[in-house]
Design brief:
2 domains, Aminoglycoside 3'-phosphotransferase, Chain: A, domain 2, single chain, globular, five-stranded antiparallel β-sheet, three-stranded antiparallel β-sheet, alpha+beta, 10 strands, Phosphorylase Kinase, domain 1, 284 residues
Length: 284
């Protein structure tokens, strides 16, 4: 693939060529929903991943923070990629490329041992520290309510019910500590090589309750196969979920999914968001 056809601008491409002399692009791994460009690059016989984006992309600073400060426990065992170089001005990251294939849409996505390993890796990430912020839940509730003011296709009656549920529970109950979270922990960001699991893509890294990293697995996999949930929790070592906060988290996640997917035009993901809303509200 020619550099001019990758979507990188001149400054981004020049940075990559300076960092990786003789680099060749052998694949495009971009998802196409945001302005993030993800390229498979080879230089001097070694494989790298190049990620580049525009000035307003919020994933770039999150991923950079994660690689600089919070991926150490996974990197120490070779279970994630290492930061090679960064151009903050032009928003380009170069990281090593872990071997294997994405678990998504393969038998590995429903392999109990892969889910067990996912629990082990996630616990290492989470166990690096805690922060206490009693206002975190209030802000997350407000964010979900505000999202309902954006364009979406959620039925008016459902909107009213979501507002009522969140309004009745602004911040009470268990205050969960915040931990370093991946933010998108499921088979789309798991790479499997001969049965060995590694993690990629920290673009949604943030400090959140540990349960936040379980929401997508619960929706995509666990409700269809409880064996996978049990395997994951065995690897993680415990179930971190408080029942009341878990159902509130699922409701906020459902709102965010339906609204965000509509904004980027992903109709399949939007439909999933509506299914998530139905199921989340049923818990109340």
């Amino acid at each position: 693939m020619q550099w001019g056809r990758t979507g990188l601008d001149d400054q981004q491409a020049a940075f990559v060529r300076a960092v990786l002399p003789g680099a060749e692009v052998v694949g495009d791994d971009s998802w196409g929903l945001l302005d993030t460009i993800v390229l498979h690059v080879v230089a001097e016989g070694r494989a790298y991943t190049v990620k580049a984006c525009g000035p307003d992309n919020t994933h770039f600073p999150r991923e950079l923070e994660a690689h600089r400060h919070w991926t150490g426990p996974l990197l120490a065992t070779g279970d994630t990629n290492a930061l090679v170089a960064v151009d903050q001005e032009h928003r380009v990251l170069v990281v090593t490329r872990v071997p294997g294939h994405l678990a998504l849409d393969t038998p590995d996505a429903t392999d109990p041992d892969v889910h067990r390993q996912a629990g082990v890796l996630l616990r290492r990430l989470h166990d690096q520290g805690t922060r206490h912020d009693p206002d975190h839940r209030v802000r997350e509730h407000a964010k979900a309510v505000a999202a309902l003011d954006a364009p979406h296709r959620i039925a008016p009656g459902t909107v009213d019910r979501v507002r009522a549920v969140l309004g009745e529970r602004p911040g009470g109950g268990v205050v969960e500590p915040l931990v370093p979270t991946h933010g998108d922990w499921h088979p789309r960001n798991w790479v499997v090589d001969d049965g060995h699991l590694r993690a990629i893509d920290f673009g949604r890294f943030a400090w959140r309750p540990a349960t936040a990293d379980l929401t997508r697995l619960a929706v995509h996999h666990w409700q269809h196969d409880p064996v996978l949930e049990a395997a994951f929790l065995a690897g993680y070592g415990r179930d971190p979920r408080d029942p009341e906060q878990w159902r509130l988290l699922q409701l906020r996640e459902a709102v965010g999914t339906a609204v965000w997917a509509h904004a980027v035009g992903d109709e399949d993901f939007e439909a999933q968001g509506h299914d998530m809303l139905r199921d989340a509200l049923a818990a109340f």
